[in-house]
Amino acid sequence: MRKYEALGVIETQYFTCAVELLDHMCKTANVDFLASERYLGGGLVTVIVGGGIADVTRAVEAAQQLGQRLGNALKMALVITNPHPEILKFIPPVQQEQVKGQLSTAIESQAKQVKED
């Protein structure tokens, strides 16, 4: 596993907001998407990125600014500088199939909610 100078962690209320924030973070700074976890049936989503200290800090700050514009969907954001290598053992690697599956599930549930409304 690659060593990162910093880890950025954001937690947001909805999966779709998490995808939008992650997209914005990756476009703003040179960070790698490391992991995503969903809690409470997709109600809370944690996204973890890694990279250099300046890049991760810039990405997390960009996520905070966008999160405020999204109606305070962002619940928490932090930067962990110089993480111990043991911490990276607890971050499950993201599989492309897992991301595609989560995205299609989120899109289907959003479409279902729109139809019900």
TrEMBL record:
<dbReference type="InterPro" id="IPR044872">
    <property type="entry name" value="CcmK/CsoS1_BMC"/>
</dbReference>
<comment type="similarity">
    <text>Belongs to the bacterial microcompartments protein family.</text>
</comment>
<dbReference type="InterPro" id="IPR050575">
    <property type="entry name" value="BMC_shell"/>
</dbReference>
<keyword id="KW-1283">Bacterial microcompartment</keyword>
<dbReference type="InterPro" id="IPR000249">
    <property type="entry name" value="BMC_dom"/>
</dbReference>
<dbReference type="GO" id="GO:0031469">
    <property type="term" value="C:bacterial microcompartment"/>
</dbReference>
<dbReference type="InterPro" id="IPR037233">
    <property type="entry name" value="CcmK-like_sf"/>
</dbReference>
<dbReference type="Pfam" id="PF00936">
    <property type="entry name" value="BMC"/>
</dbReference>
<feature type="domain" description="BMC">
    <location>
        <begin position="6"/>
        <end position="92"/>
    </location>
</feature>
<protein>
    <submittedName>
        <fullName>BMC domain-containing protein</fullName>
    </submittedName>
</protein>
